[in-house]
Amino acid sequence: MTHDINEIEVVCESNTVYCTCTNEVGEISCVNESFIKVSGYSEKELIGQNHNIMRHPDMPQVIYHLMWESLKSRKTFLGLIKNKTKDGSFYWLMNEISIMPKRKSDPLTYYAYKELPSKRAIFHISSLYKELLECEAKNGIKASAKYLDEYLSFRGVNYKEYLETFRDASGLFKVGYFMARKLFK
User: Fold this and answer.
1) What is the arithmetic mean of pLDDT over 110-136?
2) CB 3.0–4.6 Å: which of 6, 28, 61, 157 could bond 178 by disulfide?
3) What number of other Cβ atoms are within 10 A of residue 32's Cβ?
4) Is 12 inside any structural domain?
């Protein structure tokens, strides 16, 4: 059982890999020790549970919609996710989710490699997510999707490209490149 949400941030360690595996409906099938530690759950509590037990209410539904659309199209999804811990605290991780290669007849397994995002990424994304949540609260997920499309379109990027601008020191260069690309289309 999880506790109420609180404003305590769990600090994730840099240079640490956090991993989970899920099936096609999001049920957790494997986790690594780092993820167990940051989530506050035991391995036994996580295995077989839907990954959304860690869904923080500050996360817009439209981001999960993007995730499932990408995965259903067999594309890798990159997303900056705010999760809640067992005790109601929170943490941010940049999630890169892909399909684990298997035989075509096997059920799909999704592998999520998670890394510590930059403070700059959290600053920009948390502002965007607040706007998306307001859109969802007032007018639903379609309004949120429209806002996100307009936000990204203005910058000349898709969601994955936008997040890529925060992954390394070349981020500001990438933003300039994407905006220039938009101007000269």
Assistant:
1) 94
2) 157
3) 15
4) no
8, amino acid identity = I
State the CATH number of the domain containing residue 179.
3.30.450.20
Does the residue 55 lie in any domain?
Answer: yes
Token reading at 115: 């890394």
Residues spanned by the domain of 138: 18-183
- Domain assignment present for 4: no
- Give the model confidence (pLDDT) of 34-62 as tens digits: 999 999 999 999 999 999 999 999 999 99
Distance between CA atoms of residues 119 and 138, nearest Å: 29
What is the number of structural domains in the chain? 1
In-domain check, residue 7: no
- 90 vs 9: CA distance, rounded Å: 5
pLDDT tier at 168, thresholds 50, 70, 90: low
Quick one: pLDDT band at residue 67, thresholds 50, 70, 90?
A: very high
